[in-house]
Amino acid sequence: MKLLKSAALILFGFSVNAVAAEDLVKKASDAGLKPIPQNHAELFKLIDNPDNPINKDKLDLGKKLYFDPRLSKSSLISCNTCHNLAMGGVDGIPAAIGHKWQHNPHHLNSPTVYNSVFNVKQFWDGRSPSLEEQATGPIEAGPEMAMPAGLAVERISSIPDYVNSFRRVFPGQQNPVTLENIGKTIGAFERTLVTPSRFDAFMHGDDDALNAKEKEGLKVFIDKGCTSCHNGVGIGGGSLQKFPAVKPYKYASLGDFVGDASGMVKVPLLRNVAETGPYFHNGAVWDLNEAVKIMGETQLGVTLTDQEANSIVAFLDSLTGKKPDVHYPVLPASTAKTPKPQAD
Amino acid sequence: MKLLKSAALILFGFSVNAVAAEDLVKKASDAGLKPIPQNHAELFKLIDNPDNPINKDKLDLGKKLYFDPRLSKSSLISCNTCHNLAMGGVDGIPAAIGHKWQHNPHHLNSPTVYNSVFNVKQFWDGRSPSLEEQATGPIEAGPEMAMPAGLAVERISSIPDYVNSFRRVFPGQQNPVTLENIGKTIGAFERTLVTPSRFDAFMHGDDDALNAKEKEGLKVFIDKGCTSCHNGVGIGGGSLQKFPAVKPYKYASLGDFVGDASGMVKVPLLRNVAETGPYFHNGAVWDLNEAVKIMGETQLGVTLTDQEANSIVAFLDSLTGKKPDVHYPVLPASTAKTPKPQAD
User: Fold this and answer.
1) Are residues B103 and B18 in the same domain?
2) DSSP string, A207-240
3) Nearest Cβ partner of A341 from B69, B93, B103?
């Protein structure tokens, strides 16, 4: 039947597919899926934070700090160590490893920084309301960068180039080098890490941006109910949900994370998901196909066939986006006053 | 007297300084100091390796591998971890820390990768004849990246984008993904990490590129005999020497490194030295002024005055060069076949 339809398409020279694509865009839109805006002003409005407006100087400084390992006690670990912009914004290991090779005590997987601006809250338990606030968490966390706030401020304050940048970015402040402002610059930089994908092009009207299998996958993704949680611009990230909801999660015993106070877990973004394995809060699953099937079971109570899971994975692949150009920064040198690295 | 000379210069409108600068360039040149060529063809000839010719595809691949932590057993440590291009090409800690947070067993300091093409041999004991060969050393070394050669090949071979790049860069080879070829691509990339400085501009005839204090420092640097070892395009890196030579090195007990079989130690490059502390093979000294004085004592048997050491440091600051633009790479994603990270 499908073959006949395709043949008809070719023979009669009019686009049944185009109509179908338009329907699919509407279906996706009705299900709550939203593309990243193509219009720059619209996008800027979506990612900017009125309490911490983006500007060029702030982005430059935030990028430097994002890549600066001197924000860790040892001077060896930067934000980019666990949220590597070269690798889908993650570290690619099951659970984070930090200062002195400590494993994350809850066996929590590092979520991607790409498109994290579309998360309604940050961290797996949603305990942080913004990227600006989140950014300071791992800096101070003992098993991550292990950096006392005072030492962070002292390190940065010892480097005149950094101090000048902070003065420029936070004019009128007596002592602009604070952990809060460090978080603001890093948060601003992270807000710009948005990755438009073929899915977005499709939603904006480019029918050919997705192939037939991916379109089929998008349909299945919607029809099975995945979009009840994985929606919005992030294709996830918009809410916390019970996990597991319907049936047990077979790898639940790995780590001791149980969600927030109500047992709720943040729905992860699915953008670039093909690059951000291993999956789930505890990084237990390496295979995306298996992850999709587990989600069907635990969250929707449906057993997906191999074909259904495969087509969903095909759709998810279309969410791999173009990464922003990042010029690797040259960091200002330490000075005689810079507190020394503390590796132990 | 100096003031009078300056006044005379201004009054009579002719350049005494220019003549002096010309003399100083000749003096520096006679002492064996060489600038990085400004002429691109000349520079290319200087950095290229006929056994491993530089080309664009090789550089692209080499840069990716340089930044790829999956070349380490844990998938957490890349070449750039210890030779950070954002931080003068070093890690800024006394001695390298690697896999499972192991400290370098000999307490050896990570040398800068910038301008390392000008080293006659690589490693502190000069045991590697080329950057291409050197690059594979830390990948395999247990306390560094701890990566068995076979596993490195298996990881890279599991990623189709990488395999395609290796085929393109090493045409005609049946199995181009080898540790040797990994080293060749990384070595080629490293050859391009050259940083022209104000010193080079001065040597090429820009009299104003160095200020009076720096020129004075350059004179002292030559007159005291520093150029007997720190010469050539690298301002060092051209030979192995006895260290300490004349008087004991007061921090010799830190670590057990004694040089090569003959007790010889490679003379480090001084380019970007202001950014590459702490100093010496065992990273014992944080203050460049102290390092300069120690070198005077141990190598030349001279006690430098504060003023002499200060002026040498001023000259050394002029060796801080412009870093090449590095676009942070987007690495090809791992696949289902990619051997998993091994953090333990």
Assistant:
1) no
2) GGGS-HHHHHHHHHHHHTTGGGTS-BTTTS-S-E
3) B93
Out of B22, B140, B144, B154, the active site residue is B144
pLDDT at res. B19 = 56
Q: Which of A204-218, A263-277, B9-23, B72-86 has the lowest mean pLDDT?
A: B9-23
Nearest in space to A48 (alpha carbons), one of A191, A189, A194: A191
Find the CATH number of the domain harbouring A215. 1.10.760.10
Which residues in chain B are contacts of A103 at CB distance < 8 A?
A: 343
B290 vs B218, B243, B276, B297, B340, CA distance in Å?
A: 18, 16, 14, 11, 46
Is the pLDDT at A91 greater than 80? The verdict is: yes
- Among A64, A193, A319, A334, pick the best mutation site for testing chain B contact (most B Cβ within 10 A): A334
Per-residue pLDDT tens over the stretch B204-244: 999 999 999 999 999 999 999 999 999 999 999 999 999 99
Domain that holds residue B242: 2-39+195-317
The percentage of residues in chain A with a pLDDT greater than 70, rounded to a whole number, is 94
For residue A57, count other CB atoms closer than 10 A to its CB: 14
Q: For residues A119 and B194, give the distance between their C-alpha atoms in angstroms, rounded to a whole number.
A: 42
A69 with B84: Cβ contact below 8 A = yes
Contact across the interface for B91 and A74, Cβ inside 8 Å: no
The alpha-carbon gap from A87 to the nearest alpha carbon of chain B, in Å, equals 6
**At which of A191, A217, A243 does a domain end?**
A191
The residue out of B147, B168, B191 marking a domain boundary is: B191
| pLDDT band at residue A13 using 50, 70 and 90 as cut-offs | very low
Question: Is the domain of A311 the same as that of A292?
Answer: yes
Within 8 A of A92 by CB-CB distance, chain B residues are 69-70, 75, 334, 341
The reply to whether B64 and B7 lie within a common domain is no
Q: Are the C-beta atoms of residues B54 and B44 closer than 8 Å to each other?
A: yes
Say if residue B16's pLDDT is above 60: no
CB atoms A336 and B286 under 8 Å: yes
Nearest to A86 among B88, B100, B331 (CB): B331
Shared domain for A34 and A83, answered yes or no, is no
| pLDDT above 60 for A11 | no
Out of A325, A329, A336, name the one closest to residue B86 (CB). Answer: A329
Instruction: Kindly report the average pLDDT of chain A as a whole number.
Output: 95
Written as one letter, the residue type at A315 is F
Rounded-to-integer distance, Cα A220 and Cα A296, Å? 11
How much is the pLDDT for A20? 81
pLDDT band (50, 70, 90) for residue A19: low
User: What sign does the CA torsion over A173, A179, A180, A186 have?
Assistant: positive
